[in-house]
Automatic annotation (TrEMBL):
Keyword ATP-binding set for record: yes
SUPFAM superfamilies assigned: P-loop containing nucleoside triphosphate hydrolases (SSF52540)
Entries under InterPro entries matching the protein: AAA+_ATPase, ABC_transporter-like_ATP-bd, ABC_transporter-like_CS, DrrA1/2-like_C, P-loop_NTPase
Chain segments annotated as transmembrane: none
Keyword list, A-Z: ATP-binding, Nucleotide-binding, Transport
Pfam hit, one: DrrA1-3_C
Organism superkingdom: Bacteria
Coiled coil: none
Gene3D superfamilies: P-loop containing nucleotide triphosphate hydrolases
SMART domains linked: AAA (SM00382)
Annotated ABC transporter domain residues: 5-235
Protein name per its UniProtKB record: ABC transporter ATP-binding protein
Length: 306
């Protein structure tokens, strides 16, 4: 699949604050790419550099193989950007906002009308099209904001934490919109500090922390490479974790124990044997699937708090 965006060794400081130290990743056409990191990791700064809002101090950005740093036209044509802060005219209707943004991207006349109808249908807000945006909930505004970024039919949609502080219904609607656009071939670059959003929406991920990309790749590969292999065991009355060979680390969780191991199959067999032999009253015994949470912990050394 064609690489549409190549970001290499981006650096950026705000005064003495080093926001980006080395951001390097690439994105293929049609991918849904998650940009995961805590507040302050540098996600917004990276996205602002990609969209030409902020200048980098160093590094390169290539869009469709061409240097995008000073190519505002190419950026405007190919990228739709949904910033963290909603940018809409509160006193204008949803329709008029869309008309304004469409025109600013160079879409006009009957074609613009057609596209506005299309994006309104995607947002599920057709019946609110003529209401002033100031009467909308945060989630509805966000949906219109995403719609505005789609009017010029970009090949890449960049969304900066679009679900922060919005209601679950709008959140689900936004997820559906993003999935549909992605199915239609639009590449997605989605920043978030919610693990589960990356797990449900994205097929590739870059983990960002302290201004650098700590790990990146297909979600499945990261889980395999950095995810913890473990077994959860809960036995009535068990005060200490079982001392089976092959347990690298044991930690208490709920009423049972998480046993980390390199060899899940062997350890499971051993535990089953021990359970039969010692007549354990087993409440639960199961393999724990590696999660993005422990991938994050492994590559950054800290937990990501939602
Ligand atoms: N305009 C600015 N002036 C000074 N410092 C800034 C500015 N913008 C960002 N920073 C700092 O740069 C670092 C990276 O911020 P950035 O907003 O890119 O992170 P983020 O991962 O998007 O986090 P958030 O989710 O909080 O936006 C932070 O330490 C932040 O305080």
């Amino acid at each position: 699949m064609e690489t549409i965006l190549e970001v290499s060794q981006l650096r950026k400081a705000y005064g003495k604050k080093e926001a980006l130290r080395d951001v390097t990743f690439s994105l293929r056409a049609g991918t849904s790419f998650g940009f995961l990191g805590p507040n302050g990791a540098g996600k917004s700064t990276t996205m602002k550099i990609l969209t030409g809002i902020v200048n980098a101090d160093g590094g390169t950005v290539k869009l469709f193989g061409r240097d995008a740093t000073n190519d505002a036209d190419a950026v405007a044509r190919h990228i739709g950007y949904v910033p963290q802060d909603i940018t809409l005219y509160e006193k204008l209707s949803a329709y008029d906002n869309l008309e304004f943004f469409g025109q600013s991207y160079g879409v006009r006349g009957a074609e613009l009308k057609k596209r506005i109808r299309e994006v309104l249908e995607r947002t599920g807000l057709v019946d609110r099209a003529n209401d002033e945006v100031q009467t909308f909930s945060g989630g509805m505004k966000r949906r219109i904001n995403i719609a505005a970024a789609m009017l010029h039919r970009p090949k890449l949609l960049i969304l900066d934490e679009p679900t922060v502080g919005i209601d679950p219904q709008s959140r689900n609607h936004i997820f559906d919109m993003i999935r549909e656009l992605n199915r239609e071939g639009v590449a997605i670059l989605y920043s978030t500090h919610y693990m589960e959003e990356v797990e449900t929406l994205c097929d590739e991920v870059a983990i960002m922390d302290q201004g650098t990309v700590k790990a990146k790749g297909p979600l499945g590969e990261l889980l395999e490479r950095y995810g913890r292999q473990a077994i959860y065991v809960e036995v009535a009355g068990m005060k200490e974790p079982p001392h089976s060979p092959g347990v690298a680390k044991a930690s208490k969780e709920g009423a049972g124990w998480i046993l980390e191991t390199d060899r899940v199959g062997e350890l499971m067999q051993r535990l089953l044997n021990e359970a039969a032999h010692r007549r354990w009253d087993v409440k639960q015994l199961e393999v724990v699937r590696p999660s993005l949470e422990n991938v994050f912990l492994t590559v950054t050394g800290t937990a990501l708090r939602d």
